[in-house]
Design a protein that fits this description.
Blueprint: E1 2-4, H1 32-42, E2 72-76, H2 87-102, E3 106-110, H3 118-133, H4 152-163, H5 166-178, H6 185-205, E4 211-215, H7 224-229, H8 232-251, E5 255-263, E6 266-274, H9 279-294
Parallel strand pairs: 2-3, 2-4
Antiparallel strand pairs: 1-5, 4-6, 5-6
Helix pairs in contact: 1-9, 3-5, 3-6, 3-8
């Protein structure tokens, strides 16, 4: 089980900033109950983190309820015909919806039209923000410093060449291009507008439902080898994972991923997302589904 808190619920102090407006820390646990226990400890205001929210932290363990009767659970209709998602994932998704309906939940179709653009929007925002954040790792104050003698420019080049991986270097270059004077309005500014649209659509959705329900991953997980070497299969799956998970990150809402099935012996799961700072309903829904799948 993986839990993503609302943006600002947990302190980011001490983390290496990658994409500051998206970065969040949350627990990975064996079950939903353990996530609630961990979040009870992790959540809270931190004056050392400017994005930390100074609001009360509820007792998340008390929100763990098996009874899901009357809860309104929405599914995003734009996710229902995405090309490339394994049919077994869709079947599992529908089976879970049916099981929750039998347990008394109300299933509601929700439209979030701009959710399908979240993957592209993430690519722009992440590249721009990582270009800004990791530029500080130049060998002067932060992290690794090269031992190669030379000029100041050579020190910067060698330090970053030795200390940063190829994926980060690629994103630094792309982000710097997108943030240039010539391209800023075309990429970064337009993406921020799309993000605001996604945020507004999520807020409207939560006026109709308690939580949203969707797959986490489109197929079985790719191998470590594929991930390290950047295979086409991993790239395609990665893009679909971004599509299914990034709308929640872009809008800063909490979410929980619960294992629900296997493909060729490899696990996959479903996720609930709730209104910002309403982790309690997310824990409630995730725990209820977990108990339903266990037959409890």
């Amino acid at each position: 089980v993986g839990f993503k808190p609302s943006y600002g619920r947990c302190s980011r102090y001490g983390m290496i900033s990658y994409s500051s407006s998206l970065d969040q820390g949350g627990p990975i646990t064996k079950n939903v109950e353990d996530s609630a226990i961990m979040m009870k400890i992790m959540a809270g205001y931190d004056k050392k983190d400017a994005t930390s929210a100074n609001i009360e932290v509820p007792d998340y363990e008390k929100s763990l309820k098996k009874d899901i009767k009357g809860m309104k659970i929405g599914y995003i209709k734009e996710f229902m015909d995405v090309e490339g998602i394994n049919p077994a994932v869709y079947k599992n998704f529908n089976d879970c919806l049916e099981a929750m309906k039998k347990a008394g939940a109300e299933i509601v179709e929700i439209s979030i039209p701009h959710a399908v653009y979240s993957g592209q929007a993430y690519a722009v925002l992440a590249n721009c923000e990582v270009s800004s954040n990791l530029a500080r790792y130049d060998g002067v104050r932060y992290g690794h410093r090269t031992k190669v003698e030379g000029s100041l420019d050579e020190m910067y080049e060698n330090t970053r060449g030795e200390g940063l991986g190829w994926q980060i270097k690629r994103r630094l270059v792309i982000g710097a291009y997108m943030l240039s004077v010539e391209q800023y309005d075309t990429y970064f500014l337009q993406t921020q507008r799309i993000r605001r649209m996604i945020f507004n659509e999520f807020n409207e959705a939560y006026k109709k439902v308690d939580v949203l329900f969707a797959p986490v991953i489109p197929d079985k997980p790719w191998t470590i080898h594929d991930a390290i070497h950047g295979s086409k299969e991993a790239g395609k799956l990665g893009a679909l994972v971004d599509l299914l998970t990034m709308p929640m990150a872009m809008s800063g809402v909490p979410g929980v991923a619960v294992p629900t099935g296997f493909i060729d012996g490899m696990p996959f799961g479903m996720q609930f997302a709730g209104k910002r700072f309403d982790e309690e309903k997310v824990f409630h829904a995730g725990y209820a589904l977990e108990q339903i799948l266990k037959g409890a």
